[in-house]
Amino acid sequence: MKVLEVRGLKTGYRPKGGAENVLLENFNLTAEEGELIALIGANGAGKSTLLRVLAGLQEPRSGAAEWFGKSLPKIPVNQRPRYAASLFRNFAKADGMSVYDLVALGRHPYTGMFGRLRDEDREAVEHAMTLTGISDFRARQAATLSDGEFQKAMLAKLLAQDAPLMILDEPATHLDLPAAVDLLRLLNRLSADHGKTVIFSTHNIAPVFKLVRKIILLDGRGNYASGTPEQLSEHHLMCSFLRTDKVRVENGNLIYNFDNK
User: Fold this and answer.
1) Are 107 and 82 in contact (CB under 8 A)?
2) What's the domain count of the chain?
3) Is residue 146 part of a domain?
């Protein structure tokens, strides 16, 4: 099943009184049910902009996007949370709210105007906290969490929403390396075992090359490359991104060949 499809997408911005700055042009993507897709590229390459467009939070400069065969602009805003859940970095710590209540906000598409949790909602919240390892934090005030703990709480809120399409902008930010790898494994399980379609951006490309089979690389000048780790390892955009030609993929691992020169 096609969960997401975009054709001829163009993203960018036009500064007031300036020329248009194109970040991505003629971008095409089909995301199937259960796919895990990683988005990589240098800072400023347009990863966040593309994800906001895919999440329906920003209009593209041109092109078309569809969720489940429906034109995105034609899907009412109040219905979109049942289709897609997104997590971006521009959030502030919630003051005066427990971790449990924060995660429970993810159930808003299902709880009605009064936000009353039913048994199935509570089960979804508990399951999301278990998956992200924050069950012991349930009674803590969200504002007292470390940046890494709060990132996990926000991810749990996203999981509690239980949408078939998940779009995450650098979800491993503030996480240490073991937690970041655990997160990637969790996203892999969600796609492989639960049929979620997950699209996420990251700078941690070594574990991505090991666990993700579809990667999109943006160069920030309108160009992109898409394929398996093996295919991208030989692409000229990857060499440009890494600023070296001494890299290869071997047995699913990203290998750097450094010398002393």
Assistant:
1) no
2) 2
3) yes
Which of helix, strand or coil describes residue 141?
A: strand
The three-class DSSP label of residue 28 is strand
- Which structural domain range is residue 145 located in? 91-162
Domain end position, chosen among 112, 146, 162: 162
Task: In the chain, count H helices and then E strands.
Answer: 8, 12
pLDDT value for 3? 97
**Boundary residue ending a domain (99, 130, 162):** 162
For 39-71, b where at least 16 C-beta lie within 10 A, e where not — what string? bbbbeebbbbbbbbbbbbeeebbebebbbeeee
CB 155 within 8 A of CB 172: no
Q: Look at residue 156 and tell me if it is in a domain.
A: yes
The CB density around residue 132, as the number of other CB atoms within 10 Å, is 25
- For 181-205, write each residue's pLDDT tens digit: 889 999 999 999 999 999 999 988 8
- 249 and 181: one domain? yes
CA–CA dist 150, 147 (Å, integer)? 5
Residue 261 domain-assigned (yes or no)? no
User: Over the stretch 155-168, which tens digit does the pLDDT of each residue have?
Assistant: 999 999 999 999 99
Q: What are phi and psi of 211, to 5 degrees?
A: -110, -15
Strand partners, 250: 253
Distance between CA atoms of residues 56 and 43, nearest Å: 22
Q: Which amino acid is it at 63? A: G
The residues, any chain, with a CB within 8 Å of residue 240's CB and separated by 6 or more, are 219
Q: Is 26 left (phi over 0), alpha (psi -120 to 50) or beta?
A: left
> Quick check: is 34 in a domain?
yes
